[in-house]
Amino acid sequence: MERLTSYDENKGLLVNEEERLLSSKGFIDKLEMYKIMRHLAEKVKEYEDLEEQKRLKIFPCTVGDTVYVLTKCEDILPQIDRTFINSDREPQSEAEYHCPYEYDCPFKDKDFKDCESYKKRTAVFEDTVNQISIFKDDDVHIFTENCATLGMFGKDIFPTKEAAGLRLLVDAEHDDQDAKKHDQEQEEC
Predict the structure, then answer these.
(1) pTM of the model
(2) Across the chain, how many H-helices and E-strands are there?
(3) What angle do CA 79, 84, 85 make, to 5 degrees?
(4) CA distance 17 to 3
């Protein structure tokens, strides 16, 4: 599809064909104005038709973007240590797998013991988008290099660390409320 718009050297918006037509003539009559408006309307209609046919989708990110993933440590895909790959690009017998976040673990602090004790805990991990898919239900799923998640933008994939952190807090508060409600129900029994 041919581009309808572009930017000039000063970042001003240009309507490609129409802008050239206007600048070449210096003035414009009603018939020419009608042709320009008709052309613009046809372009807008093309996009609207594609959208109605569910063939136009605006993605919240693109492949290669940095995103922030809300996931459990057990859903982090182990990476092979590339220093143990032989010349045939096959893992050698002493090849080891490791967590890609071992040097940037959100749980590593002065009380950190070992990874196993954190496997079921959820945290925010920075990752890179490597695939975007649209499923039958028209849901967009985003897949990342290191985290195995459902990939729903705004649910477990976020554009900023702050947005992911806020969701983590909201989810934790919701889990606390559910636990308190469950405890009260148990006491009543």
Answers:
(1) 0.69
(2) 3, 8
(3) 90
(4) 9
